[in-house]
Amino acid sequence: MRLRCEVNGESREVDDVWPGESLLYVLRERMGLPGSKNACEQGECGSCTVYLDGVPVCSCLVAAGQAEGHEVTTVEGLAEGEQLDPVQQAFVEKGAVQCGFCTPGLIVATHDLLERRERPSDPEIREALAGNLCRCTGYEKILDAVRLAADRKAVS
Amino acid sequence: MSRPTKAPDKAPDRITTPITGGVGESPLRPDGTLKVKGEFAYSSDLWMDDMLWGATLRSPHPYARIVSIDLSGAWQTPGVHTVMTYDDVPGEKLFGLEHTDQPVMAHEVVRYQGEAVAIVAADHPETARRAVDKIVVEYEVLEPLTDAEEAVFATDAPTLHPGGNLVRHLPIRRGDQHATADVVVRGEYEVGMQDQAFLGPESGLAVPAEDGGVDLYIATQWLHVDQKQVAKCLGLPNDKVRLMLAGVGGAFGAREDLSMQVHASMLALRTGRPVKIVYSREESFFGHVHRHPAKLYYEHGATREGRLVYVKARMFLDGGAYASSTGAVVANAATLGVGPYEAPNVTIDCWGAYTNNPPCGAMRGFGAVQAAFAYESQMDRLAAELGLDPVEVRVRNAMAEGTTMPTGQVVDSAAPVAEMLRRVEAMPLPPAAPTDSYDLRELPGGVSNTTHGEGVVRGIGYGIGIKNVCFSEGFDDFSTARVRLEVIAGEPTAMVHTAAAEVGQGLVTVQAQIARTELGVERVTIHPADTQVGSGGSTSASRQTYMTGGAVKAACEKVRGLLLDIARERLHVEGQLHLDGGKIVSDRHGVLADLAEVLGDEVIDETVEWRHRPTEALDPTTGQGFAHVQYAFAVHRAVVDVDVDLGLVRVVALDCVQDVGKAINPDAVVGQIHGGSAQGLGLAVMEEIQVRDGKIRNPSFTDYLIPTILDMPPMKVDVLELADPHAPYGLRGVGEPPTISSTPAIVAAIRAATGLAIPRCPVRPEDITGTA
What we know:
The complex is a heterodimer. By secondary structure, chain A is an alpha+beta fold. Chain A has five helices and five strands, in the order E-E-H-E-E-E-H-H-H-H. Chain A starts with a strand and ends with a helix. The longest helix of chain B is centred in the C-terminal third of the chain and has 28 residues, at 544-571. In chain B, helix 5 (223-234) packs across helix 6, helix 9 (368-386) packs across helix 10 and helix 9 packs parallel to helix 16 (737-754).
């Protein structure tokens, strides 16, 4: 089938999509956007989190056809050229990235949290990111990064 | 800074701006920006225009004879390019890290559920998976052998491998084997099978090359040991199998063994097309080795003052169907089986066995984890028996520099065990559990709303662990580094090239830091890791900063020596020169010239192979010998709240003291301690591969639970830096110790809260409610 949707602000059209493919597969293998990661394929790890019409979703659980005519934003769409989004910048600065495989999903989930909530409390951060597994960091530096990004966004 | 009264004319401290980002600082990771933008190329992200996808047929049975294999259904599937089995393996049919015992694909018999039987290449991953489903294998199902102790001792157990079911037995005998003591405590302990659960599943891309060889882009922990094994199985010389490290999504031991490397290469060579294989999460649970489950029988004898007289232990590690690194895991469990304590008389036996359970091998902590759960449980039992505080009994027996280990090895660098225990004990405790008001998020069960505080009790527990760093027992352990120094666009630039695997820990950052410090240049680039340079050894055993760090340091020293020779010649000076801030500096005359001016168009390019001090094999009957390069220690204090009605546990605090010798990158060190502690928390209360009759029942992240951000408490971390004179910069390996001590600390806290014995980890709700 043919799939048309807007990805990171650009109209995209891809052919020969098999109806069983997930949005994640199409992004990664057909659109050249491998930033969103596939770590569990069942919505448990959050590594594939993208925005679908502004709502964060696990793209592994979205059938590609469901994105027809909708807007998708991936981790690749958050920076403005060389200028990192404040969330991305904070993750780099605070050492919240080790292997980095969970990072794209955490960046999108954090971006969404800070769109909804200015200066979230620690319990709020933990609740918001509970669907994103990280195996390397023990989450301490991720919390540091979220707090830093929240502070910077609040004063900007 | 005070100056000597007779300072030379131009004292060196007057010069230049110092180089930033050197050893002891925390520069940002060079790959961080790519990773946050989603632009870092992991092994699963690789893509070529004409590539095919590989898939693997795996055995549904833990033990069965293969009667027949019918591949026709797969061959007839449109889009399939090739189907291959054992018969198609072009070279050696077996591989393995320590023992060559594992078939590339099963031959006549399958020895574990998930063993590879056939492989397919097709133009779409789903086509490949469906083709795999159409392969018909007729099995004669056999009764699996699933108990390690039986595998070794039961006379009626089936023999799984030609040499028998024993992979290794290591006895340790020290002192009086018949010692008696006033106070004796005994215990039987069990450790469940843990998964490394890295986030980036096994994956890679094999590209057939014009010379008949293969270029393999792969996520691994040791490129050269993969190269050696893959080349043998393909029947190719090593130089025709070139490996490039693709982005690695975590490792933790699970990438020490081969997974899809040979399969993808075979499919690529057969089809003449690039072939990519990416495991799903479920397949990943079958596609790599796990932490050995263990059964441990311990007896400690002590004086009434609480000093150890003897330790006796019998340990059984279940190696599963193939040996992997079981032999080395056995050695760690046995040699570190007393823990970081002085014990004059030791009798330890450790067995590693073949069974039909999933193969087990390396995971962070590597044998030391299982032993620590048992010996720390025993120390708490001893404390209770004597009416002593758990910290006090540990301090009274704490080993130190100069202690003789159960192997007879005398510890010849800092071992601040007692001080670490006192320091963690002195850290402030979290506030008491609220009794009047409550926030669900701060209670066991969280927003599941399972308690408002009723039935919740608090406990505090301690755990301390010991780990060997680098490869032991006389292994020729080395790393290779190539360093190139040249002037690019007017600026001196160093390039560091090694084959050492960056798996997320930050080795690339550390390599650049060492080059900056040693060469006094700001700009350092890290060449991608590949097999075009000599081996970097394994990214395991907490060894890469020590070993590849040591190799980079040695290569830089050689480059620096050559550069200073050039400087002496060109500047017509003699005597001591050094590099600082991009300048050539003389002790006597201060700054002489810019490094860039002296070097000019010349390129200095040197490769150095570097070794740690040699170790010895262990005596096979007494386990005596100078077997370990270095010891490292971490201690945890855990605070838990337990809902005794439902058996739910919330870890409230998990604080840690670790001696790292020298923190090369302090932020990265703390990151390792956080992450390692979290994996230990997982083993304490959440993580277990549930195996029944040889079959894995929970191969998914829905059913195999790793800690989330809600499960990890805030951590206070205290890093000590007591230099080891034998190691580069005095550093001590960092990655593994925190994984070892957090588990026993948390379980001890649960025991303290509930008064239950709890001889097994992970602790399940039914272990607390008594409904198991």
